[in-house]
Specification:
This protein has four helices and no strands. By secondary structure, it is mostly helical. The protein is globular and about 55 Å long.
């Protein structure tokens, strides 16, 4: 079982590395790498997510990484994720809420 786990982990790491290289080459965006500013964390922060998911041409680069039979569903998933992240990170407008009391 440990051998199977190690082989799966190596396969996954090769796939992620390949996807990162494609995204970097086509968009100039470095994703899932250590934060270059020296702060803790990685590059999957709000500004990177905004650039990847918020711009259609960058989303299409991500979509191109999956097999063609899944691209339509993956595109819809990424668009939905973008909406959720955009709403979640937006500042609430207090005038938008109505007091029901």
């Amino acid at each position: 079982i440990q051998t199977l786990h190690l082989k799966h982990k190596q396969w996954y790491q090769r796939r992620v590395r390949g996807a990162n290289e494609v995204v970097k080459a086509k968009t100039g965006i470095l994703m899932d790498a250590p934060d270059p500013t020296g702060k803790r964390g990685n590059t999957l922060k709000g500004d990177i997510c905004t650039r990847l998911l918020g711009e259609e041409r960058n989303r299409e680069v991500l979509v191109s990484l999956v097999p063609s039979q899944f691209q339509q569903s993956f595109r819809a998933l990424l668009e939905g994720l973008w909406v959720i992240l955009h709403v979640y990170s937006s500042d609430p407008d207090p005038d938008r809420y109505v007091d029901v009391n």
